[in-house]
Protein backbone atom coordinates (compact mmCIF):
# COMPACT_ATOMS: atom_id res chain seq x y z
CA UNK A 1 0.00 0.00 0.00
CA UNK A 2 1.27 3.47 -0.93
CA UNK A 3 -0.03 6.30 1.23
CA UNK A 4 0.14 10.06 0.91
CA UNK A 5 -1.17 12.97 2.96
CA UNK A 6 -2.30 16.21 1.32
CA UNK A 7 -2.57 19.13 3.74
CA UNK A 8 -4.55 22.17 2.62
CA UNK A 9 -4.28 25.22 4.90
CA UNK A 10 -6.22 28.49 4.84
CA UNK A 11 -6.31 31.19 7.56
CA UNK A 12 -9.45 29.73 9.16
CA UNK A 13 -9.42 26.07 8.16
CA UNK A 14 -7.09 23.08 7.79
CA UNK A 15 -8.03 20.04 5.70
CA UNK A 16 -6.09 16.79 5.44
CA UNK A 17 -6.73 14.10 2.81
CA UNK A 18 -5.37 10.57 3.12
CA UNK A 19 -4.70 8.99 -0.27
CA UNK A 20 -4.10 5.25 -0.52
CA UNK A 21 -3.22 3.68 -3.87
CA UNK A 22 -4.34 6.86 -5.63
CA UNK A 23 -7.79 6.94 -4.01
CA UNK A 24 -9.14 9.25 -1.31
CA UNK A 25 -9.80 7.26 1.88
CA UNK A 26 -10.16 9.81 4.68
CA UNK A 27 -10.80 13.53 5.07
CA UNK A 28 -10.06 15.43 8.28
CA UNK A 29 -11.29 19.01 8.67
CA UNK A 30 -10.50 21.43 11.47
CA UNK A 31 -11.94 24.92 11.53
CA UNK A 32 -10.45 27.39 13.94
CA UNK A 33 -13.82 28.42 15.34
CA UNK A 34 -15.01 24.79 15.66
CA UNK A 35 -11.84 22.98 16.53
CA UNK A 36 -12.42 19.50 17.98
CA UNK A 37 -11.88 19.28 21.74
CA UNK A 38 -11.28 15.54 22.23
CA UNK A 39 -8.26 15.20 24.52
CA UNK A 40 -8.64 18.67 26.03
CA UNK A 41 -8.42 18.87 29.82
CA UNK A 42 -10.58 21.38 31.73
CA UNK A 43 -11.20 22.46 35.28
CA UNK A 44 -14.97 22.02 35.16
CA UNK A 45 -17.77 22.82 37.59
CA UNK A 46 -20.51 20.29 38.40
CA UNK A 47 -23.81 22.08 37.76
CA UNK A 48 -26.26 19.18 38.13
CA UNK A 49 -26.20 15.63 39.51
CA UNK A 50 -28.68 13.09 38.12
CA UNK A 51 -28.88 10.02 40.41
CA UNK A 52 -31.35 8.23 38.14
CA UNK A 53 -28.90 8.38 35.24
CA UNK A 54 -25.82 7.87 37.43
CA UNK A 55 -24.38 10.96 35.79
CA UNK A 56 -23.61 14.64 36.19
CA UNK A 57 -23.58 17.66 33.93
CA UNK A 58 -20.37 19.68 34.05
CA UNK A 59 -19.77 23.23 32.85
CA UNK A 60 -16.43 23.37 30.98
CA UNK A 61 -17.06 26.72 29.29
CA UNK A 62 -18.91 25.45 26.19
CA UNK A 63 -22.40 26.34 24.96
CA UNK A 64 -23.73 22.96 26.15
CA UNK A 65 -22.97 21.34 29.48
CA UNK A 66 -20.77 18.25 29.20
CA UNK A 67 -21.81 14.77 30.38
CA UNK A 68 -19.92 12.77 33.01
CA UNK A 69 -21.09 9.24 33.87
CA UNK A 70 -20.25 7.62 37.20
CA UNK A 71 -18.35 4.84 35.41
CA UNK A 72 -16.04 7.48 33.89
CA UNK A 73 -15.02 8.88 37.27
CA UNK A 74 -11.71 7.47 38.39
CA UNK A 75 -12.14 5.72 41.74
CA UNK A 76 -11.51 2.40 43.42
CA UNK A 77 -14.23 0.11 42.11
CA UNK A 78 -16.13 -2.22 44.45
CA UNK A 79 -15.96 -5.91 43.47
CA UNK A 80 -19.04 -8.11 43.86
CA UNK A 81 -17.66 -11.46 45.05
CA UNK A 82 -20.74 -13.36 43.84
CA UNK A 83 -20.53 -12.24 40.22
CA UNK A 84 -16.89 -11.06 40.14
CA UNK A 85 -18.15 -7.85 38.53
CA UNK A 86 -17.23 -4.30 39.42
CA UNK A 87 -19.91 -2.09 40.94
CA UNK A 88 -19.89 1.61 40.19
CA UNK A 89 -20.45 3.74 43.33
CA UNK A 90 -23.50 5.99 43.52
CA UNK A 91 -22.84 9.23 41.61
CA UNK A 92 -23.86 11.24 44.71
CA UNK A 93 -20.87 9.81 46.62
CA UNK A 94 -18.48 10.85 43.85
CA UNK A 95 -19.42 14.45 42.96
CA UNK A 96 -21.71 17.20 44.20
CA UNK A 97 -23.15 20.35 42.68
CA UNK A 98 -20.77 23.30 42.73
CA UNK A 99 -17.68 21.07 42.90
CA UNK A 100 -14.68 21.90 40.70
CA UNK A 101 -13.28 18.80 39.01
CA UNK A 102 -10.52 18.17 36.47
CA UNK A 103 -11.96 16.36 33.44
CA UNK A 104 -10.93 15.34 29.93
CA UNK A 105 -13.10 15.25 26.80
CA UNK A 106 -13.43 11.79 25.22
CA UNK A 107 -16.16 12.69 22.69
CA UNK A 108 -16.82 15.96 20.92
CA UNK A 109 -20.30 17.47 21.18
CA UNK A 110 -22.42 15.67 18.58
CA UNK A 111 -25.72 17.14 17.36
CA UNK A 112 -27.81 17.99 20.42
CA UNK A 113 -25.52 16.10 22.80
CA UNK A 114 -22.84 17.77 24.88
CA UNK A 115 -19.26 16.54 25.15
CA UNK A 116 -18.59 13.25 26.97
CA UNK A 117 -16.09 13.49 29.86
CA UNK A 118 -13.84 11.31 31.98
CA UNK A 119 -11.69 11.96 35.04
CA UNK A 120 -9.26 9.24 33.95
CA UNK A 121 -6.82 11.69 32.35
CA UNK A 122 -4.29 10.79 29.64
CA UNK A 123 -1.81 12.82 27.61
CA UNK A 124 -0.33 11.32 24.45
CA UNK A 125 3.02 11.90 22.77
CA UNK A 126 4.85 10.14 19.96
CA UNK A 127 5.59 6.84 21.75
CA UNK A 128 3.90 7.07 25.14
CA UNK A 129 0.61 7.86 26.79
CA UNK A 130 0.94 9.40 30.25
CA UNK A 131 -1.66 8.55 32.91
CA UNK A 132 -1.50 11.13 35.72
CA UNK A 133 -2.43 9.85 39.19
CA UNK A 134 -1.59 6.26 38.20
CA UNK A 135 1.53 4.15 38.63
CA UNK A 136 0.63 1.59 35.97
CA UNK A 137 3.05 0.56 33.20
CA UNK A 138 1.56 -1.05 30.10
CA UNK A 139 2.18 -1.89 26.46
CA UNK A 140 -0.27 -1.61 23.56
CA UNK A 141 -2.05 -4.89 22.82
CA UNK A 142 -1.32 -4.36 19.12
CA UNK A 143 2.36 -5.08 19.79
CA UNK A 144 2.12 -8.87 19.65
CA UNK A 145 5.76 -9.97 19.90
CA UNK A 146 6.23 -11.06 23.53
CA UNK A 147 9.97 -10.30 23.59
CA UNK A 148 9.37 -6.80 22.28
CA UNK A 149 6.58 -6.26 24.80
CA UNK A 150 8.87 -7.33 27.63
CA UNK A 151 11.69 -5.08 26.37
CA UNK A 152 9.44 -2.02 26.14
CA UNK A 153 7.86 -2.63 29.53
CA UNK A 154 11.29 -2.99 31.13
CA UNK A 155 12.24 0.40 29.70
CA UNK A 156 9.07 2.20 30.76
CA UNK A 157 8.64 0.80 34.30
CA UNK A 158 11.33 3.09 35.82
CA UNK A 159 9.49 6.13 34.43
CA UNK A 160 6.41 5.32 36.54
CA UNK A 161 5.94 6.64 40.07
CA UNK A 162 3.06 7.40 42.43
CA UNK A 163 2.20 10.51 40.41
CA UNK A 164 2.16 9.08 36.89
CA UNK A 165 2.10 5.88 34.85
CA UNK A 166 2.78 5.24 31.16
CA UNK A 167 1.43 3.08 28.34
CA UNK A 168 3.67 2.31 25.36
CA UNK A 169 1.91 3.11 22.06
CA UNK A 170 1.92 0.78 19.04
CA UNK A 171 4.29 3.03 17.06
CA UNK A 172 6.94 2.52 19.76
CA UNK A 173 7.67 -1.00 18.49
CA UNK A 174 11.41 -1.04 17.80
CA UNK A 175 12.01 2.35 19.47
CA UNK A 176 15.10 2.80 21.62
CA UNK A 177 15.40 3.82 25.26
CA UNK A 178 16.50 7.35 24.36
CA UNK A 179 13.35 8.06 22.33
CA UNK A 180 11.11 6.75 25.09
CA UNK A 181 12.95 8.72 27.77
CA UNK A 182 12.60 11.89 25.68
CA UNK A 183 8.85 11.35 25.37
CA UNK A 184 8.46 10.67 29.10
CA UNK A 185 10.28 13.88 29.99
CA UNK A 186 8.21 15.87 27.50
CA UNK A 187 4.96 14.53 28.99
CA UNK A 188 6.11 15.38 32.52
CA UNK A 189 6.73 18.97 31.41
CA UNK A 190 3.26 19.14 29.86
CA UNK A 191 1.63 17.76 33.02
CA UNK A 192 3.53 20.23 35.20
CA UNK A 193 2.14 23.07 33.09
CA UNK A 194 -1.40 21.63 33.46
CA UNK A 195 -1.07 21.58 37.27
CA UNK A 196 0.19 25.17 37.28
CA UNK A 197 -2.87 26.27 35.34
CA UNK A 198 -5.10 24.31 37.70
CA UNK A 199 -3.59 26.10 40.71
CA UNK A 200 -4.50 29.40 39.06
CA UNK A 201 -8.07 28.01 38.79
CA UNK A 202 -8.12 28.58 35.05
CA UNK A 203 -11.73 27.76 34.21
CA UNK A 204 -12.31 29.93 31.14
CA UNK A 205 -9.74 28.09 29.01
CA UNK A 206 -8.55 24.51 28.64
CA UNK A 207 -5.80 23.41 31.01
CA UNK A 208 -4.43 21.33 28.13
CA UNK A 209 -5.18 21.20 24.41
CA UNK A 210 -4.16 18.53 21.95
CA UNK A 211 -1.86 19.61 19.13
CA UNK A 212 -3.51 21.04 16.01
CA UNK A 213 -4.72 18.87 13.15
CA UNK A 214 -1.71 18.77 10.81
CA UNK A 215 0.71 17.70 13.56
CA UNK A 216 -1.82 15.34 15.13
CA UNK A 217 -2.44 13.54 11.84
CA UNK A 218 1.27 13.08 11.23
CA UNK A 219 1.73 11.74 14.77
CA UNK A 220 -1.16 9.29 14.39
CA UNK A 221 -0.30 8.06 10.89
CA UNK A 222 3.38 7.34 11.53
CA UNK A 223 4.06 3.71 10.65
CA UNK A 224 1.08 3.54 8.28
CA UNK A 225 3.14 3.28 5.10
CA UNK A 226 3.16 6.97 4.20
CA UNK A 227 5.44 7.78 1.27
CA UNK A 228 4.90 11.52 1.04
CA UNK A 229 3.29 14.41 2.92
CA UNK A 230 2.56 17.55 0.92
CA UNK A 231 1.44 20.84 2.47
CA UNK A 232 0.47 24.01 0.59
CA UNK A 233 1.32 26.50 3.36
CA UNK A 234 4.90 27.61 3.94
CA UNK A 235 4.13 28.57 7.55
CA UNK A 236 2.54 25.20 8.32
CA UNK A 237 5.38 23.43 6.50
CA UNK A 238 7.92 25.15 8.78
CA UNK A 239 5.86 24.23 11.85
CA UNK A 240 5.67 20.60 10.74
CA UNK A 241 9.42 20.46 10.21
CA UNK A 242 9.94 21.84 13.72
CA UNK A 243 7.44 19.35 15.15
CA UNK A 244 8.95 16.35 13.37
CA UNK A 245 12.46 17.42 14.35
CA UNK A 246 11.43 17.10 17.99
CA UNK A 247 9.05 14.14 17.94
CA UNK A 248 9.19 12.14 14.68
CA UNK A 249 12.48 12.86 12.88
CA UNK A 250 12.07 9.81 10.63
CA UNK A 251 9.07 11.51 8.97
CA UNK A 252 10.90 14.75 8.15
CA UNK A 253 12.39 13.57 4.80
CA UNK A 254 8.95 12.87 3.27
CA UNK A 255 7.41 16.28 4.11
CA UNK A 256 7.28 18.58 1.10
CA UNK A 257 6.12 22.14 0.57
CA UNK A 258 3.67 22.28 -2.35
CA UNK A 259 3.91 25.65 -4.18
CA UNK A 260 1.96 24.60 -7.28
CA UNK A 261 -0.59 26.89 -8.92
CA UNK A 262 -3.06 24.02 -9.12
CA UNK A 263 -4.93 23.67 -5.79
CA UNK A 264 -3.51 20.77 -3.81
CA UNK A 265 -6.93 19.16 -3.33
CA UNK A 266 -7.39 19.03 -7.10
CA UNK A 267 -4.70 16.36 -7.05
CA UNK A 268 -6.28 12.88 -6.97
CA UNK A 269 -9.68 14.57 -7.58
CA UNK A 270 -10.12 15.15 -3.83
CA UNK A 271 -12.57 18.05 -4.12
CA UNK A 272 -14.95 16.08 -6.33
CA UNK A 273 -14.65 13.01 -4.10
CA UNK A 274 -15.71 15.11 -1.10
CA UNK A 275 -18.76 16.34 -3.01
CA UNK A 276 -19.68 12.77 -3.95
CA UNK A 277 -19.31 11.72 -0.31
CA UNK A 278 -22.18 14.07 0.58
CA UNK A 279 -24.65 12.27 -1.69
CA UNK A 280 -26.98 9.47 -0.61
CA UNK A 281 -26.22 7.29 -3.61
CA UNK A 282 -22.84 5.68 -4.25
CA UNK A 283 -22.42 4.09 -7.67
CA UNK A 284 -20.63 0.72 -7.90
CA UNK A 285 -18.51 -0.14 -10.95
CA UNK A 286 -20.72 -3.14 -11.70
CA UNK A 287 -23.82 -0.95 -12.08
CA UNK A 288 -25.12 -1.58 -8.56
CA UNK A 289 -25.28 1.08 -5.89
CA UNK A 290 -25.32 1.90 -2.18
CA UNK A 291 -27.93 4.13 -0.58
CA UNK A 292 -26.55 5.65 2.64
CA UNK A 293 -28.88 7.39 5.10
CA UNK A 294 -27.51 9.00 8.25
CA UNK A 295 -29.91 9.64 11.14
CA UNK A 296 -29.56 10.67 14.77
CA UNK A 297 -29.89 7.06 15.97
CA UNK A 298 -28.01 5.10 13.32
CA UNK A 299 -26.74 4.92 9.75
CA UNK A 300 -28.35 2.57 7.24
CA UNK A 301 -26.74 1.21 4.08
CA UNK A 302 -28.92 -0.41 1.41
CA UNK A 303 -27.36 -2.35 -1.49
CA UNK A 304 -29.06 -2.52 -4.91
CA UNK A 305 -28.04 -4.57 -7.97
CA UNK A 306 -29.03 -1.87 -10.44
CA UNK A 307 -28.17 -2.81 -14.03
CA UNK A 308 -25.78 -5.60 -13.01
CA UNK A 309 -27.33 -8.89 -14.21
CA UNK A 310 -24.31 -11.22 -14.02
CA UNK A 311 -23.19 -13.85 -16.48
CA UNK A 312 -24.63 -17.07 -15.05
CA UNK A 313 -27.58 -16.64 -12.72
CA UNK A 314 -29.27 -14.36 -10.23
CA UNK A 315 -27.44 -15.85 -7.23
CA UNK A 316 -24.08 -15.02 -8.84
CA UNK A 317 -25.26 -11.47 -9.54
CA UNK A 318 -26.34 -10.97 -5.93
CA UNK A 319 -23.16 -12.46 -4.47
CA UNK A 320 -20.81 -10.44 -6.69
CA UNK A 321 -22.70 -7.21 -6.00
CA UNK A 322 -22.56 -7.81 -2.23
CA UNK A 323 -18.81 -8.56 -2.38
CA UNK A 324 -18.17 -5.36 -4.33
CA UNK A 325 -20.37 -3.46 -1.87
CA UNK A 326 -18.22 -4.52 1.12
CA UNK A 327 -15.23 -2.63 -0.29
CA UNK A 328 -17.32 0.45 -1.00
CA UNK A 329 -18.96 0.36 2.45
CA UNK A 330 -15.62 0.22 4.26
CA UNK A 331 -14.31 3.16 2.24
CA UNK A 332 -17.45 5.24 2.67
CA UNK A 333 -17.50 4.74 6.46
CA UNK A 334 -13.93 6.06 6.66
CA UNK A 335 -14.44 8.83 4.12
CA UNK A 336 -17.69 10.08 5.67
CA UNK A 337 -16.49 9.28 9.21
CA UNK A 338 -19.73 7.50 10.05
CA UNK A 339 -19.91 6.03 13.53
CA UNK A 340 -22.25 4.51 16.08
CA UNK A 341 -24.70 1.82 14.95
CA UNK A 342 -24.59 0.97 11.24
CA UNK A 343 -27.18 -1.36 9.69
CA UNK A 344 -26.25 -2.90 6.33
CA UNK A 345 -29.04 -4.38 4.22
CA UNK A 346 -27.23 -6.68 1.82
CA UNK A 347 -29.18 -8.20 -1.06
CA UNK A 348 -30.74 -11.42 0.24
CA UNK A 349 -28.55 -14.51 -0.18
CA UNK A 350 -29.89 -18.01 0.40
CA UNK A 351 -26.42 -19.60 0.23
CA UNK A 352 -24.87 -19.60 3.74
CA UNK A 353 -21.38 -19.99 2.27
CA UNK A 354 -21.91 -16.79 0.30
CA UNK A 355 -22.99 -15.03 3.51
CA UNK A 356 -19.78 -16.11 5.26
CA UNK A 357 -17.64 -14.91 2.37
CA UNK A 358 -19.41 -11.53 2.30
CA UNK A 359 -18.85 -11.06 6.05
CA UNK A 360 -15.19 -12.05 5.65
CA UNK A 361 -14.77 -9.60 2.77
CA UNK A 362 -16.32 -6.81 4.87
CA UNK A 363 -14.03 -7.60 7.81
CA UNK A 364 -10.93 -7.59 5.58
CA UNK A 365 -11.95 -4.25 4.05
CA UNK A 366 -12.63 -2.73 7.48
CA UNK A 367 -9.27 -3.94 8.84
CA UNK A 368 -7.60 -0.98 7.07
CA UNK A 369 -9.59 1.37 9.32
CA UNK A 370 -7.71 2.77 12.32
CA UNK A 371 -11.01 3.30 14.18
CA UNK A 372 -12.31 0.47 16.37
CA UNK A 373 -15.24 -1.44 14.85
CA UNK A 374 -17.26 -4.63 15.26
CA UNK A 375 -19.35 -6.68 12.81
CA UNK A 376 -22.19 -9.05 13.71
CA UNK A 377 -23.48 -12.05 11.74
CA UNK A 378 -26.47 -11.88 9.42
CA UNK A 379 -29.73 -11.52 11.33
CA UNK A 380 -32.89 -13.50 10.59
CA UNK A 381 -33.99 -10.56 8.43
CA UNK A 382 -30.77 -10.64 6.41
CA UNK A 383 -29.30 -7.52 8.04
CA UNK A 384 -25.76 -7.03 9.32
CA UNK A 385 -25.31 -4.79 12.34
CA UNK A 386 -21.99 -2.97 12.72
CA UNK A 387 -20.58 -0.52 15.20
CA UNK A 388 -17.80 1.98 14.55
CA UNK A 389 -16.38 4.14 17.30
CA UNK A 390 -17.45 7.75 16.97
CA UNK A 391 -15.34 10.50 18.52
CA UNK A 392 -15.98 13.42 16.14
CA UNK A 393 -18.62 14.76 13.79
CA UNK A 394 -19.26 13.06 10.46
CA UNK A 395 -18.25 14.74 7.21
CA UNK A 396 -21.90 15.56 6.50
CA UNK A 397 -22.41 17.24 9.87
CA UNK A 398 -19.22 19.29 9.42
CA UNK A 399 -19.97 20.49 5.89
CA UNK A 400 -23.79 20.58 5.82
CA UNK A 401 -26.66 22.06 7.81
CA UNK A 402 -30.38 21.41 8.03
CA UNK A 403 -32.33 22.29 4.89
CA UNK A 404 -34.36 25.47 5.59
CA UNK A 405 -37.02 24.46 3.08
CA UNK A 406 -37.86 20.95 4.31
CA UNK A 407 -36.59 21.44 7.92
CA UNK A 408 -34.29 18.46 7.61
CA UNK A 409 -36.95 15.96 6.47
CA UNK A 410 -35.19 15.36 3.19
CA UNK A 411 -38.34 15.82 1.08
CA UNK A 412 -40.91 18.48 0.15
CA UNK A 413 -44.68 18.46 0.12
CA UNK A 414 -45.97 18.18 -3.43
CA UNK A 415 -47.49 21.15 -5.21
CA UNK A 416 -50.87 19.41 -5.04
CA UNK A 417 -50.59 18.89 -1.26
CA UNK A 418 -49.72 22.54 -0.65
CA UNK A 419 -52.62 23.59 -2.90
CA UNK A 420 -55.12 21.62 -0.81
CA UNK A 421 -53.62 23.04 2.41
CA UNK A 422 -54.26 26.54 1.03
CA UNK A 423 -57.89 25.68 0.21
CA UNK A 424 -58.45 24.32 3.74
CA UNK A 425 -56.83 27.40 5.26
CA UNK A 426 -59.20 29.68 3.30
CA UNK A 427 -62.19 27.74 4.66
CA UNK A 428 -60.83 27.96 8.22
CA UNK A 429 -60.17 31.70 8.03
CA UNK A 430 -63.54 32.36 6.41
CA UNK A 431 -65.36 30.63 9.28
CA UNK A 432 -63.37 32.49 11.93
CA UNK A 433 -63.40 36.01 10.45
CA UNK A 434 -65.58 38.25 8.33
CA UNK A 435 -63.81 39.08 5.08
CA UNK A 436 -64.93 40.36 1.66
CA UNK A 437 -62.31 38.50 -0.40
CA UNK A 438 -59.02 36.61 -0.06
CA UNK A 439 -55.57 36.98 -1.59
CA UNK A 440 -53.26 33.92 -1.57
CA UNK A 441 -49.49 34.49 -1.79
CA UNK A 442 -47.65 31.32 -2.86
CA UNK A 443 -44.55 30.05 -4.67
CA UNK A 444 -44.47 30.14 -8.48
CA UNK A 445 -45.21 26.41 -8.91
CA UNK A 446 -48.08 26.42 -6.42
CA UNK A 447 -49.55 29.62 -7.90
CA UNK A 448 -49.36 28.16 -11.40
CA UNK A 449 -51.09 24.99 -10.23
CA UNK A 450 -53.94 26.89 -8.51
CA UNK A 451 -54.47 29.08 -11.57
CA UNK A 452 -54.30 26.18 -14.00
CA UNK A 453 -54.56 22.48 -12.96
CA UNK A 454 -56.45 23.17 -9.73
CA UNK A 455 -58.50 26.11 -11.08
CA UNK A 456 -61.75 24.13 -10.88
CA UNK A 457 -61.13 23.45 -7.15
CA UNK A 458 -60.60 27.18 -6.61
CA UNK A 459 -63.81 27.99 -8.49
CA UNK A 460 -65.79 25.46 -6.45
CA UNK A 461 -64.46 27.02 -3.21
CA UNK A 462 -65.42 30.54 -4.36
CA UNK A 463 -68.98 29.32 -4.94
CA UNK A 464 -68.98 27.49 -1.58
CA UNK A 465 -67.94 30.54 0.50
CA UNK A 466 -69.44 33.15 -1.84
CA UNK A 467 -66.28 35.25 -1.98
CA UNK A 468 -63.60 36.03 -4.56
CA UNK A 469 -60.16 34.42 -4.22
CA UNK A 470 -57.08 35.84 -5.97
CA UNK A 471 -53.78 33.95 -6.24
CA UNK A 472 -50.58 35.98 -6.43
CA UNK A 473 -47.05 34.68 -7.07
CA UNK A 474 -44.22 35.36 -4.61
CA UNK A 475 -40.96 34.41 -6.30
CA UNK A 476 -39.03 34.32 -3.01
CA UNK A 477 -41.39 31.81 -1.35
CA UNK A 478 -40.33 28.16 -1.02
CA UNK A 479 -42.67 25.47 -2.31
CA UNK A 480 -44.28 24.85 1.11
CA UNK A 481 -44.62 28.52 2.03
CA UNK A 482 -47.87 30.48 1.57
CA UNK A 483 -50.01 33.20 3.17
CA UNK A 484 -53.77 33.72 3.09
CA UNK A 485 -54.67 37.41 3.48
CA UNK A 486 -58.19 38.75 4.19
CA UNK A 487 -59.33 41.89 2.38
Question: Secondary-structure map with pairings?
Answer:
Blueprint: E1 3-10, E2 13-20, E3 23-31, E4 41-50, E5 55-59, E6 66-69, E7 78-80, E8 85-87, E9 100-107, E10 116-118, E11 123-124, E12 128-132, E13 137-139, H1 146-156, E14 164-168, H2 177-199, H3 213-221, E15 226-231, H4 234-246, E16 255-257, H5 270-276, E17 281-283, E18 289-294, E19 298-304, H6 314-336, E20 340-345, H7 352-366, E21 373-378, E22 383-388, H8 395-399, H9 415-432, E23 437-442, H10 444-451, H11 455-465, E24 468-473, E25 482-486
Parallel strand pairs: 1-15, 13-14, 15-16, 19-20, 23-24
Antiparallel strand pairs: 1-2, 2-3, 4-5, 4-9, 5-6, 7-8, 9-10, 11-12, 12-14, 17-18, 18-19, 20-22, 21-22, 23-25
Helix pairs in contact: 6-7, 9-10
Pfam families: RNase_E_G (PF10150), RNase_E_G_Thio (PF20833), S1 (PF00575)
Subcellular location: Cytoplasm
Organism: Thalassotalea fonticola
